[in-house]
Amino acid sequence: MSKIALEQRVLLELLSGEITGESEISKEDLKAVNWNGVLKEARAQAVPLMAAEAAAKYKEYISNYEKWKDVMTCAHVANVVTAYNEQQLGQLMGDRPYFILKGMSAASYYPKPHERCFGDIDFLIDPGQREEIERLLENSGYKNWNKEHICHVVFTKENAHLEMHFEISGIPYGKPGEIIRDFMKGAAEHRRTAEFDGWSFPAPEDMYHGLIILLHMQHHMLSEGVGLRHICDWACYVQKTAKDGFWKELLDLFERVGLLTYAKVITKLSAKYFHIHCPNWAEDADEQLCDELMQDILIGGNFGRKDIVRSKSGMMISEHGKCGTQRGSIENLFLTLHHSTSARYPVVKKFVLLYPFLDTWRVILYIGRMVTGKRKSILKMAPIAKQRRSVYERLHLFEI
To answer: Is this prediction's pTM over 0.90?
Structure first.
């Protein structure tokens, strides 16, 4: 980990200690590290709560530990609000088949579930009940954003932000997508009851959860970028389920859809940086690629929040991970533009001849805003996209 800054190395060890109980931070590093820098990195990587609780044992070295406690308190409050909103959703849904995606479901695999910071409430429903559940939410005071999206609808109410999925995110085009959709048929019926701080909620069965979070992770990695929270989710999942019997079937699925190399690399990366046990099936992963992916995560931060130009460069790498890295930069830019035009102007679905005019107009607008500095320069994005792509291409995503 010689290329990783001291603050980042300390953060990784703090997280490792919470996941596996193993961490190696020397007294010299504890004294030398900039603890403000560690906290800043933890927030950029969406893991402040886990880091803050881990740092408590080293508070004698932290001059501003009160700031860490404030961050911890705010994160706990945000989690409680999310948990309450999820309980409200559960009461509305009744016995309808659904389960929580990521968030609380991911937290249930953590040694200390309350340390996983939550964002929006994502949940998967039976697509056949979409209209019924939309009416149910609207009649209960939730506002439908009416924003077109390929796999979910957004509802808001006071402090609640719900993403109702009728399909999981990250499903690719072509044969891999067909295989995944077939595998996920009736998934909402396959659920387990999980708990968070005494509250029960429906979560996907273990095997489905593995596919869900791996697809979600690659989807964001190839676009704006992922943070350490995503890696912690996978590390905790593998650590808790590694000996379960479903892995043979899951790995076979990964191989059939072109996700096996990715699963191996993320697992070996988790073993190297968080000290989980590396399963036999992941031992042959390319260690250099693991290191380069970790560098990519640390440079970009969660959803690319550390570098906006870097996050926007994802437009040139892949169309939100729908086809891996198999298309060129210009084609990806065009497809991103084309689909965002469809989302922004739904009328084009009825009048398809409007597409070329609106697409052209939006290109002209973007160039004008780029010249005036209101949009990020594609010329600045290009070399970053090229460097990122050189790493991701070696994952062979969805190549079958």
So the answer is: yes
